[in-house]
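Schema walk-through. Below, the input block comes first and the output block second. Nothing else is stored per chain. Lengths vary across the set, and this one has 342 residues.
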Amino acid sequence: MALGLAAVHAHAAGVAPQAYATAVAPQGRSVPVRAELAMDSSTEDRMLALDPENISAADVRDVLSRSTAPRIIALQGSLPLITMQPFAEFLIAMGYPERQLADPKSGALSYASSGSSAELAGAVAWYYETDGLTPMLIGHSQGGMLAIKVLHELAGSFGSEVDVWNPLTDSSEHRTWIRDPRTGAIRPVIGLRLPYVAALATGKLPRFLLGQWSMLKKVREVPDTVEEFSGYTIEWDPIAGTFPGSEPYRATGSAKVRNITLGVATSHIGMPLARDLARNAVTRAWIEAYRTEESVALPAGAEVDTANLLHAADIWFSVKKHWCIELQRSIRARRSDAAAGA
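--- output ---
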């Protein structure tokens, strides 16, 4: 795609492109129609009974994976020496559906960060309208900047309208509205609120060096177009230009913003290398037991690599939390519609 959502590293196994139906909306334009979430009533009941703050490995395997999941767009840094593919493969190994991480057109698991934030914001709206679940964004370095810029696009910081962008045709749909899959109402793209966004090792210094002037101030400001934002900062990071006492991320309104400081041993370039954490029994058990509000020592051992363990575990906790919340919202909306029509 022109916005940098084009495939840059396809997963070796490949993912077949997804098919989407269309329906006629106001002004005679066709819009995507989301597939119904395939769950029987007993599975829905189990889904609604889950506590999003305490999702176990069994909950992921036996309940969440019985349906679909919000699309996750993993955005790599400006110099893709290491892309976000290893991190996407970590999420897949932990139980996240590969089809919701892969580009539906190419099968790529890592997305470039050099394109248009407006087009990415429009694609996020398209995915919500199509899938019925609001996407999540995880960005590394410049990818984190792009994720934050998308939030500002949706907040109207750069303009009063955002076009819906079709990631399958790589083009604008020449409309600035979507049909909300939960309410059935027509609503603008502006104001769409994402459930979760994460930025890894994203600093102000590269914005200055790359001439990204519009984001110099905004890169640490989190608008209300996300429910929960996690910012991961390496204590001494000359690439991002962050050092002890660096400016934290802050909410401009009601968004929940978490600042997580990582130790000096964390590599800026190597942060996405998390795949093997899901394959090692010790680190996987630590990840599955991790809770954001608890402080637990990292596991020790000669064969245990903990370099990327904290941010990987923290992101996985939030991803499965918001996966659960999004499915619960969709189920409740459908049941409410069914009750109203009875």
